[in-house]
Amino acid sequence: MNNESDKNRTTVDRRTLIAGGLGAIVAPAVLRVIPANAQSKAIKIGHVSPKTGPLAGFGESDGFILDQMTQALKGGIQSGGKTYPVQIISKDSQSTGTRAAEVAQDLILRDKVDLMLASSAPDTTNPVADQCEVNEMPCVTTNCPWQPYFFGRNGDPKKGFTWTYHFFWGLEDVIASYLPMWASVSTNKVIGGLFPNDADGNAWGDPQRGLPPALAKAGYKLIDPGRYQVMNNDFTSQISQFKQAGAELVVGNMIPPDFATFWSQAAQQGFKPKIVTIGKALLFPSVIESLGARGDGLTTEIWWTPHHPFKSGLTGQSAKELTDAYVAATKRPWTQPIGFEHALFEVAIDVFKRSKSLEPKAILDAIVATDYQSIVGPIKWSGQPVKNVTKTPLVAGQWQRTADKFELVITENKTAPVIPVGGKLKLLG
Predict the structure, then answer these.
(1) pLDDT for the residue numbered 40
(2) What is the C-alpha to C-alpha distance for residues 68 and 322, in angstroms, rounded to an integer?
(3) Rounded distance between C-alpha atoms, residue 109 and residue 105, angstroms
(4) Are 14 and 27 within 8 A, CB to CB?
(5) Closest of 129, 137, 121, 151 to residue 58, by C-alpha
(6) Is-contact 376 354, C-beta < 8 A?
(7) Partners of 91 in the beta sheet?
(8) How many CA atoms lie within 13 A of 405 on its CB side?
(9) What's the predicted TM-score (pTM) here?
(10) Among residues of the chain, what percentage have pLDDT more than 70?
(11) For residue 403, what pLDDT is reported?
């Protein structure tokens, strides 16, 4: 099913997923053909996410979600009064912007998809969305804070973009969930910042739009050593500055390998903060488990859990039912991106069902008019916070270890009271 050029462009090992009687290649591309009994024309959905590389944890659930969509769409999609078979072509960004742009261009120009989907950090969402904007391709993205997505693409709030739309939370929601979590315990309010020199790190550390002004307003003293290069192997300078300032908290946005390096070196160099709250790296159970006992008590933002009170408008599954299905199918712990990957396809299918035709402008009009209840909450683009972004709820919490098992416990929900708290914050050590 895969094009020869895709085979030649990558040396990534391929693995085969079998589900529902259908085999599919996961990397570099997955092609799912979902038959229908009416029209010969097929709806083509392009999908790009990081299945390999340092951000591969975000794409870990892709195979499971594609299996779900295969089953949900086995009768095709009815759009504009006609029923169409569906092809989902999923490609690996390999956690790099260059590769993401390349496969997006292939999907648009060679595979001629009708709608593009992309997820998981600006390394993937931004280059894919940029290719779609240039080529007038309808596009929906998720799993990236909206500021790195929007301003990282040089978005103008007065104009916005035309073809590309995004749903997720923003940095203002991170701060709004972190501050009350930190305030629930006693610290000296001196906080070390770890921000990489990438789209996420530059957005989180931005002196106007990022965390620094909000931290200052709340009375925190931020120790910001400056941007470090991704895949850094030495955090001695940052640790020394944090120790000298007496920092009792650490905040940042890091890829898993960088956090593992920092946290190991912090132990070696005797740096023992009371609270460590890191976005991106601490989302995944595999990362926490790899840290052993030193994973206990680490904190992060929480986008989605089995306890979130939302249901899929496509399958009817609750958040818990979806995670239970994932665990049963994969024998792996649930991860936060599962809900948003599912919701991404939910939105896409809803768009096609409401589109008057398969012309790009009609599909775009259907995206703009979206008013949908998804497994991650309501999705409706209403111009706030900017034209092309709608926000989903965010809370915060902590990895807590009981015996040999880690659980991500929601400890703060002031930003979204509808999502239940599961426990209280505990200090490290």
Answers:
(1) 61
(2) 10
(3) 6
(4) yes
(5) 121
(6) no
(7) 29, 48
(8) 5
(9) 0.87
(10) 91
(11) 81
User: Quick one: which of 68, 71, 143 has its CA closest to 100?
Assistant: 143
In which residue are the tokens 């070696």 written? Answer: 268
Q: What is the pLDDT of residues 368-390, one digit of tens each?
A: 999 999 999 999 999 999 999 99
253 bridge partner residues: 279
Q: What is the 3-state secondary structure (H, E, C) of the chain?
A: CCCHHHHHHCCCCCCEEEECCEEEECCCEEEEEECCCCCCCCEEEEEEECCCCCCHHHHCCHHHHHHHHHHHCCCCEEECCEEECEEEEEEECCCCHHHHHHHHHHHHHCCCCCEEEEECCHHHHHHHHHHHHHHCCCEEEECCCHHHHHHHHCCCCCCCCCCEEEECCCHHHHHHHHHHHHHCCCCCCEEEEECECCHHHHHHCCCCCCHHHHHHHCCCEEECCCCECCCCCCCHHHHHHHHHHCCCEEEEEECHHHHHHHHHHHHHCCCCCCEEEEEEHHHCHHHHHHCHHHHCCCEEEECCCCCCCCECCCCCCEHHHHHHHHHHHHCCCCCCHHHHHHHHHHHHHHHHHHCCCCCHHHHHHHHHCCEEEECCEEEECCCCCCCCEECCCCEEEEEEEECCEEEEEEEECCCCCCCCCCCCCCCCC
pLDDT above 90 coverage of the chain, percent: 86
Both tokens of 200, joined, read 């996420």
Q: How far is CA 32 from CA 44, 244, 257, 378, in A?
A: 10, 55, 32, 27
CA distance 267 to 262: 9
- Please tell me the distance from the alpha carbon of residue 81 to that of residue 14, in angstroms, as a whole number: 39
Which residue do the tokens 């939910």 mark? 346
64 to 18, 77, 327: CA distances (angstroms): 10, 20, 10
How far apart (Å, rounded) are the C-alpha atoms in residues 25 and 30?
5
- The encoded tokens of residue 57 equal 């944890």
pLDDT of residue 355: 97
Burial 202-226 (b: 16+ CB within 10 A, else e): bbbbbeebbbbebbeeeebebbbbe
